[in-house]
Amino acid sequence: MPSYDTQPTNSSETHPAVLPPADAAASQIPRDIKTILTHANLQDDMEAVERLLLKRSASQSPQIADAGAYLIRAGGKRMRAAQALLAARLGAYDFDQARHAAATVEFIHTASLVHDDLVDHTQQRRGRVTVHARWDTDVALMVGDYFFALAAAEMALCRDPRIVLFYAQAVQTIVSGELHPVTDVAPLDVAMSQYTRKVGAKTAALFEAGCKAGIASAGGSDAAVAALGSYGYDLGIAFQIVDDVLDFVGDERTLGKPPGNDLREGTITLPLIYAVAETDDAFLRKLAGVALTDPVQVKQAVDAVVLAGGVERAQAASHAYVSQAIAHLDGFSPSPARHALIELARFVVQRQM
Ligand code: FPP
Ligand code: MG
């Protein structure tokens, strides 16, 4: 097994505040990302990244400043920034550099969500009114562009020139992926290849870039960057599968949107693909690509997918991707940061929101 380790220089890695056993039992999965970051002594740094995001999103334009603050304060899990910081902790951690890699990924993510909600005509995200619905279409378009420019400015502060390339490639992938929906629910191999391409673009590509940027900000070798990129990519696929599963079995209050949203919009995701593969049911086949307006029909469709075992099989797939993600960390010596990345991966498959 290759070793990707670099010696930490500007790091408190050797003196963590809370030090769990190097590879503690899987049963101890933290309930939130804050706890995971604490295990790698990164909670203060994450708070500093949060302040940086807020500071940067100020603008001379009152509408952009208001909408920008609204978006940053809405928060989210900051999963991508956490990955970037944790990845950096596996190298010669330098917060002054890692923070730019971490802020960039959150700016790109936020920009993509604002534009996505605009093109999807979504009224709510995470239980809050979306920017285009609260302000208007023009403001949403401009705020998305503004955040994208904030990401560019943040990347300009990264010393390692590889980082801009990682993020540029991710944005190219995200944008192209938007134009390739999943159109077929069967046969399984065709549907799977469309689905994997779709989620690889919309979610995994940015997870991959954030992890690569994090370790690159800490002087990681190309081999270390590749390993963490693969970790991020597989984790991104698992994360999106879980998102798609929660759309069937999640709690409306926790998710901030009613279950069955994807079926309502005629979007084909993995639980439906697997349900069709398991049963070849005509009712399930007909759901693909057809928007459902009747809430009773949506409930029937959700129940049919669950009954067919589509959710269970998708959950199993997310676990397999997480195991694969964790295996990419094998070349790094046990450390609190490596342990936290493993915890983060396990957290992804057991999260409820
Ligand atoms: C969410 O998919 C999709 C994305 C997060 C990517 C959207 C990308 C663009 C609109 C292109 C613009 C990109 C940049 C970087 C400015 P979804 O609608 O299936 O998921 P949802 O349920 O979270 O809305
Ligand atoms: Mg959307």
**Count of helical stretches:** 17
The major beta sheet can be summarized as: 2 strands, antiparallel
The poorly predicted ranges are 7-26
DSSP summary, beta strand count: 2
Give average pLDDT, whole number: 91
Which small molecules are bound? farnesyl diphosphate, magnesium ion
Helix proportion range? 55-70%
Shape: globular
List SSEs in N-to-C order: HHHHHEEHHHHHHHHHHHH
Structure class: mainly alpha
Radius of gyration: 20 Å
Strand content: under 5%
Q: What strand line-up does the widest sheet have?
A: 1-2
How far is the first residue's CA from the last residue's CA? Answer: 35 Å
Q: TL;DR?
A:
This protein has 353 residues and is mostly helical. The protein has helices spanning 33-39, 43-56, 62-74, 79-89, 95-120, 131-134, 137-155, 162-178, 188-217, 222-249, 252-255, 261-264, 270-279, 282-287, 295-307, 310-327, 336-350; strands at 124-125, 128-129.
Descriptive report:
- This protein has 353 residues and is mostly helical.
- 68% of the residues lie in helices and 1% in strands.
- The protein contains 17 helices and two strands.
- The protein has helices at 33-39, 43-56, 62-74, 79-89, 95-120, 131-134, 137-155, 162-178, 188-217, 222-249, 252-255, 261-264, 270-279, 282-287, 295-307, 310-327, 336-350, and strands at 124-125, 128-129.
- Strands 1-2 form a two-stranded antiparallel ribbon.
- Strand 1 (124-125) and strand 2 form a beta hairpin.
- Helix 4 packs across helix 9.
- The model is unreliable at 7-26 (pLDDT under 50).
- The protein binds farnesyl diphosphate and magnesium ion.
- The site of farnesyl diphosphate has 16 residues, from helix 5, helix 7 and helix 8.
